[in-house]
Amino acid sequence: MLNRRPSPHRAQHGWTLIEACAAAAIAAILAAIAYPSFDAQITKSRRADAIAALFRTQLAQERWRANQLRYGSLAEIGAPSQSSAGHYAIAVTASSETSYELLASAQGRQQRDADCRNLKLAMVGSDMVQASGPDASTSNPDAANRRCWSQ
Question: What tens digit of pLDDT does each residue of 47-97 get?
Fold first, then answer.
């Protein structure tokens, strides 16, 4: 009768606890590196929603002005008070016979977009001015404005 002894070189099946922990740690590190970039892209896409809402409101202002002697309020021009996805509140902060100012203010989680929390589109005579800033003064320097307006 043969006496079979277990082989010291048995085939292993599955992972050890240390290998599983190492794989989880690597996955966590990769996620920690990737998440800020992902979050920045989400914030930027929400900003695009505000820019589109401002341009739609600008078109409504121009249609209104074509039939009136002045630019109008949101209610008069029939424009919504929020961007289509609801991440920005839209307001007419000034309007006259020759000019108007539109302001998009971040709401909810979009308020974390510190430098671009407020976007302003102004028409002064025949000049269009795009500004941005952390508050309603929209006083960002030119480089920050270009970044906020995706230029």
Answer: 999 999 999 999 999 999 999 999 999 999 999 999 999 999 999 999 999
Question: b vs e for 60-85, b when ≥16 Cβ sit within 10 Å of the residue's Cβ?
Answer: bbeebbeeeeebbebeebebeeebee
Place of tokens 């006083």: 139
pTM of the model: 0.78
Sheet strand arrangement including 88-95: 88-95, 99-106, 118-124, 127-133
* Both tokens assigned to 112: 């974390």
pLDDT tens digit string along 29-60?
988 888 888 888 888 889 999 999 999 999 99
- Report how far residue 2's alpha carbon sits from residue 120's, in angstroms, rounded to the nearest whole number: 89
Rounded Cα gap, residues 60 and 54, in angstroms: 10
Domain boundaries in the chain? 17-148
